[in-house]
Design goal:
The structure is a single chain. With about 240 residues, this protein is an alpha/beta fold. It is about 35% helix and about 25% strand. The protein contains seven helices and ten strands. The strands form two sheets. Strands 4-3-2-5-6-10-7 form a seven-stranded mixed beta sheet, sandwiched between helices. A three-stranded antiparallel beta sheet has the order 1-9-8, with no helix packed on it. β2, α3 and β3 form a beta-alpha-beta unit.
Length: about 240
């Protein structure tokens, strides 16, 4: 479950203008993009397309969104045997890129059955069958997810924020699940097109330490400068 309609779009909405004082508690209008049914339909169509012509589907936020996180991981000396969790893996494109960069202890989860079937097909095509992918709701998982060195989110928190049913509780559950999944001093990478840096710092203030913001494409509007997406790195602290 990842969310974006095109590589790093400017949607005219809640992006990061440097001198705007955004309210970190402001929720967004409910949307179908926040429902499991929407994503199941999306990945069912992508699965059918993959079976027909071998197209893996959308690369959410574009290839650069993966490249910037991979560059950070290299600079941060994340070891190749680090346990890495892709939250809302979608079509497993990021898992494939991580494997191509030498990382070998990889897990992807998604609550969409069609997503997981697509991911397994893509990984089989890439001959990466050692990568673990599981059908699992990150907010309500029964099986334990623990001791990860790195957790990666590329649009999943955005989608959760658009859920028509009790988004405040869902965001709280997300943060608690993330705390459980990460080791102490483990890293969390989040890419968002809905939340600003300031809002994300507020959302992940409990149990996490801000590490850095990764550079993303910027825009100018009305004499102000902002970003189409925001990518932040946090560290788990206990």
């Amino acid at each position: 479950m990842e969310v974006a309609t095109s590589p790093e779009p400017y949607d005219g909405g809640n992006n990061s203008l440097t001198d705007e004082n955004n309210d970190s508690d402001t929720d967004f209008a409910p949307s179908d993009l926040g429902t499991k049914e929407y994503w199941e339909d999306v990945y069912q169509k992508e699965l059918e397309t993959f079976k027909d012509i071998g197209d893996v589907g959308e690369i959410w936020f574009g290839k650069e969104s993966m490249s910037r996180v991979l560059r950070w991981m290299e600079k941060a000396n994340i070891p190749e045997d680090a346990a890495i969790l892709d939250i809302g893996t979608g079509n497993a494109t990021f898992l494939v890129e991580l494997a191509k960069h030498g990382y070998r202890n990889l897990t992807g989860i998604d609550y969409s059955p069609a997503s997981i079937e697509l991911a397994r097909n893509v990984l089989k095509m890439e001959e990466l069958t050692d990568i673990i992918v599981k059908e699992m709701d990150f907010l309500n998982y029964q099986e334990e997810l623990k001791c990860f060195d790195v957790c990666i989110d590329k649009g999943t928190f955005d989608a959760i924020s658009l859920n028509p049913d009790n988004t405040k509780k869902s965001k709280t559950l997300y943060v608690e699940s993330l705390k459980d999944a990460l080791k102490d001093k483990g890293f969390f990478s989040i890419t968002s097109c809905n939340w600003t840096k300031e809002q994300l710092l507020e959302k992940f203030s409990d149990g996490f330490e801000f590490v850095q913001e990764l550079p993303t494409r910027s825009f100018q509007f009305g004499g102000k400068t902002g970003n189409t997406v925001t990518t932040l790195i946090f560290k788990r602290v206990i």
